[in-house]
């Protein structure tokens, strides 16, 4: 029978435990704040014989992803972790992993990208990789980070796609949280034995990987196949999340809500700030205001139809982005949301905000001011467009 143990640990410790339980055949990593303790703790598990993984400390993040690509192409269950400038250093390799349809899992600890140098949380790193063909999940807390990491192996291997679970730097990675850890046997059974569909080492079924063999039309067909695969992964992610929920008792939805049953105004958010938004939403609902919050756990593929259905009853919606898309009309989540509403024919007023860059405070009074802005917008007030919250 499945059993769970209650622990109080940092978010990175939760993730390192998930790595140990998944027990990849190979892990290549380079430490970078605030990811470092994930790979440090996993290295300790390897050194102490608690997991049998070929663990290689490479000389750079570019080398880490390059090694992961070779390992996964050879048929090994492969994982890594990174953050910020490290993810940026991998950028050349990220679309290669996706284009080759390699089931690599890489946890990203969300951190600002310089300049100026900043080691604290925002989503500018992960958002810079959003269009490269990776499945991307956002965790609000350490528990979700643990669950997503275990789910990610199944998602990757069943869809032949790389997966990037993410958790917010320091806010989640280094804060101690209470949560539940599943027993090792249940996790082992859940992830199963990796049986690669293709392997460069299978001499009976030779495969070419990464060859220069495509002209325009063939290249487009391959990219269309990648688009089709990531779009088609949405129900698979939900199914795997439901299967894990049946073991743990913790539900999983692409789009999660609070107070949306009758909300006139709503805030959409990713990651750890959902806790702040939920607290303010609960307070205001207690005062009789019809407000609600929406949190995405799946960001790529984007659950456009489901999100539009959740927001269609609102008068106005604020979208909080913890990164900017410089030169565009709003941040990336807001642009995605506006496109989803337009496609669904939903007429809702959308006000985009940028918040919390580089670890800037996300005060509860900031969130309450957003709801006040939305109330004015619902009553016919002007929409000033993109707003930097707290400035």
Describe this structure in words.
With about 400 residues, the chain is of the alpha/beta class. It folds into two domains: about 5-250, 3-Layer(aba) Sandwich (Rossmann fold), CATH 3.40.50; about 255-390, Rossmann fold (3-Layer(aba) Sandwich). The chain has helices at about 10-20, 35-45, 60-75, 85-90, 95-100, 125-130, 140-160, 185-190, 215-250, 275-285, 305-310, 330-345, 365-380, and strands at about 5-10, 25-30, 55, 80, 105-110, 135-140, 165-170, 175-180, 255-260, 265-270, 290-295, 300, 315-320, 350-355, 385-390. The strands form three sheets. The protein has a seven-stranded mixed beta sheet, with helices on both faces. It has a six-stranded mixed beta sheet with strand order 9-11-10-13-14-15, with helices on both faces. It has a two-stranded antiparallel sheet with strand order 1-8. Strand 2, helix 2 (about 35-45) and strand 3 (about 55) form a beta-alpha-beta unit. Helix 1 packs across helix 2 (about 35-45), helix 7 (about 140-160) crosses helix 9 and helix 11 (about 305-310) crosses helix 12. The N and C termini lie far apart (about 55 Å).
Number of helices: 13
Helix share bin: 40-55%
| Distance between the ends | 53 Å
The CATH superfamily name of the largest domain is Thiamin diphosphate (ThDP)-binding fold, Pyr/PP domains
- Side by side, the strands of the main sheet go 3-2-4-5-7-6-12
User: Count the strands?
Assistant: 15
H and E order: EHEHEHEHHEHEHEEHHEEHEEHEHEHE
Instruction: Determine Rg (CA atoms, Å).
Output: 21 Å
Mean pLDDT: 97
CATH architecture of the largest domain: 3-Layer(aba) Sandwich
Are there runs of 5+ residues with pLDDT below 50, and where?
none
CATH topology assignment of the largest domain = Rossmann fold
**Overall tally of domains:** 2
Cα shape: globular
CATH level 1 name of the largest domain: Alpha Beta
State the major sheet: 7 strands, mixed
Strand content: 15-25%
Structural class: alpha/beta
């Amino acid at each position: 029978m499945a059993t769970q143990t209650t622990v109080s640990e940092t978010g990175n410790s939760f993730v390192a435990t998930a790595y140990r339980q998944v027990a990849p055949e190979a892990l290549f990593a380079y430490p970078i704040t605030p990811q470092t303790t994930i790979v440090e703790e996993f290295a300790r598990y390897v050194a102490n014989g608690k997991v049998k993984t070929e663990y290689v400390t490479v000389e750079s993040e570019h080398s880490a992803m390059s090694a992961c690509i070779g390992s996964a192409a050879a048929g090994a269950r492969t994982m890594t972790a990174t953050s910020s400038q490290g993810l940026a250093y991998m950028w050349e390799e990220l679309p290669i992993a996706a284009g080759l349809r390699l089931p690599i899992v890489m946890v990203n600890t969300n951190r600002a990208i310089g300049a100026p140098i900043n080691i604290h949380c925002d989503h500018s790193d992960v958002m810079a990789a959003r269009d490269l063909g990776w499945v991307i999940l956002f965790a609000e807390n350490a528990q979700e980070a643990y669950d997503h990491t275990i789910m990610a192996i199944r998602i990757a291997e069943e869809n032949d796609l790389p997966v990037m679970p993410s958790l917010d730097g320091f806010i989640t990675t280094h804060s101690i949280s209470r949560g539940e850890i599943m027993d090792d046997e249940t996790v082992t059974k859940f992830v199963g034995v990796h049986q690669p569909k293709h392997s460069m080492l299978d001499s009976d079924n030779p495969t070419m990987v990464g060859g220069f063999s495509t002209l325009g039309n063939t290249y487009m067909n391959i990219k269309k196949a990648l688009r089709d695969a990531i779009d088609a992964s949405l129900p698979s992610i939900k199914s795997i999340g439901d299967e894990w929920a049946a073991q743990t008792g913790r539900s999983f939805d692409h789009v999660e809500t609070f107070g949306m049953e009758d909300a006139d105004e709503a805030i959409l958010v990713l990651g750890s700030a959902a806790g702040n938004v939920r607290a303010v939403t609960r307070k205001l609902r207690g005062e009789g205001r019809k407000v609600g919050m929406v949190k995405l756990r799946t960001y790529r593929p984007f659950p456009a139809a489901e999100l539009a259905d959740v927001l269609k009853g609102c008068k106005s919606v604020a979208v909080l982005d913890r990164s900017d898309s410089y030169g565009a009309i709003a941040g990336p989540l807001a642009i995605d949301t506006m496109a989803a509403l337009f496609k669904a024919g939903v007429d809702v007023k959308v006000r985009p905000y940028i918040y919390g860059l580089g670890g800037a405070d996300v005060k509860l009074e900031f969130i309450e001011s957003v709801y006040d802005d939305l109330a004015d917008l619902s009553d016919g007030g002007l929409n000033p467009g993109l707003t930097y919250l707290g400035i």
